[in-house]
Write a structure and sequence with these properties.
Blueprint (H helix, E strand, L loop, with lengths): L35 H4 L1 H15 L2 E5 L7 E4 L5 E3 L14 E5 L2 E5 L8 E5 L2 E4 L13 E5 L4 E5 L10 E4 L4 E4 L12 E3 L2 E5 L9 E5 L2 E5 L6 E2 L2 E4 L5 E4 L2 E2 L5 E10 L2 E12 L3 E5 L2 E5 L5 E7 L5 E9 L8 E5 L6
Antiparallel strand pairs: 1-2, 1-26, 2-3, 4-5, 5-6, 6-7, 8-9, 9-10, 10-11, 12-13, 13-14, 14-15, 16-19, 17-18, 18-20, 19-20, 20-21, 22-23, 23-24, 24-25
Length: about 325
């Protein structure tokens, strides 16, 4: 039997999740290697290594009801209840979240629109410094300046839908307001600059980005989109995932859009339409936690960050809007 090195793609890579079933012509899967999963040690090593990539990922999910928090594995094999302590069971409901100096922080939300709290071990501790503006719904937070600060923007009414502030771990300071409203428009990095797209209330298509001198326009999104998730890739492009299209009656979306080189392009589809979910980028995969569908979907990318495949790895226990996500370690707070 020929000994072959394990490849990044078939038959064990993310684009070949069922191994030889998807790659019957691969040398490891050829007729002379029939039942490779039983008889070919190289194939078994390869498959085990591919599985390990995802099983080594663990995400703490804090939903609208804190007592329903859980730990989700990246391969979908486990979902275990986690115990998070908070002043109120709805403490994280509609809160935005971001890392500051490696620590998870949540901002605003239904319970208290001005609160800032930090996750210390398994407890959400409220800080003495509040947000400058009350941000109960529709706001967003984003780690900036190499994770040393967080940008918190927008809200549910009036001019708050444009305003922004920066939190450095101990103080908050106002910064440039956006030119357009971005209620449920999200925040993500495009070319390493904070960017927002669309607005739930104004139902526009406008995208804009924040530099050291203020906000400037980017190309409009093709749809009147909002309630999506924005995720930056390392290649400095921006992904927009899911959402609702108010140019089409508020229909839930499956689209995965990429803003790259000042152009929007649809690069794929979710398996189930989703909006007001949360996403986190770990390794070369984006984990998207939907609400109405409850689907947990994993978007796998190549080393050059081309979308490779979308897989559903499980379901949320309930319909959780905008759950707080935090990459952590096995057995965290369980």
């Amino acid at each position: 039997m020929t000994i072959l090195a394990c490849e990044n793609s078939c038959p064990c890579g993310a684009d070949c999740p069922t191994g030889c079933v998807d790659c019957p012509e691969h040398p490891l899967c050829a007729d002379e290697c029939e039942d490779a999963q039983l008889n070919n040690n190289d194939y078994k090593i390869c498959v085990n290594a591919a599985i390990y990539v995802f099983s080594d990922v663990f995400i703490l999910v804090i939903p609208s009801s804190v007592d329903e928090s859980y730990l989700q594995s990246g391969d979908g094999s486990s979902q275990i209840s986690a115990t998070i302590n908070a002043p109120d069971n709805y403490y994280a409901y509609y809160a935005a979240h971001a890392l500051v100096n490696g620590k998870l922080h949540i901002f605003g939300g239904y319970y208290d629109g001005t609160k800032i709290a930090r996750l210390d071990d398994c407890t959400l501790n409220e800080l003495t410094v509040p947000l400058n503006e009350e941000r109960k719904y529709g706001h967003a937070a984003l780690s900036i300046e190499n994770g040393e600060k967080a940008l918190i923007c927008f809200g549910y009414s009036g001019e708050i839908r444009k305003t922004c502030e920066i939190f450095d771990g101990s103080t908050t300071v106002s910064t440039f307001p956006a030119n357009s409203t971005h209620y449920h428009g999200g925040l993500g990095l495009y070319k390493n600059q904070p960017t927002s797209v669309g607005c739930f209330s104004e139902k526009h298509q406008k995208a804009e980005t924040l530099s050291a001198t203020g906000w400037t326009a980017l190309p409009d999104h093709p749809k009147r989109i909002s309630s999506h998730s924005l995720v930056a890739l390392e290649n400095q492009s921006l992904l927009l995932i899911g959402g609702v299209d108010y140019g089409n009656g508020g229909v839930k979306q499956t689209g995965i859009w990429q803003l790259k080189d000042e152009n929007w392009k649809k690069i794929g589809e979710l398996l189930q339409a989703a909006y007001k979910g949360s996403a986190i980028y770990i390794g070369r995969s984006i984990y998207y936690f939907g609400n109405v569908s409850k689907a947990i979907q994993r978007l796998d990318f190549t080393e050059t960050e081309e979308l490779q495949k979308v897989a559903q790895i499980g379901n949320q226990p309930s319909q959780y809007y905008l759950p707080v996500l935090f990459q952590t370690v096995p057995n965290y707070c369980i």
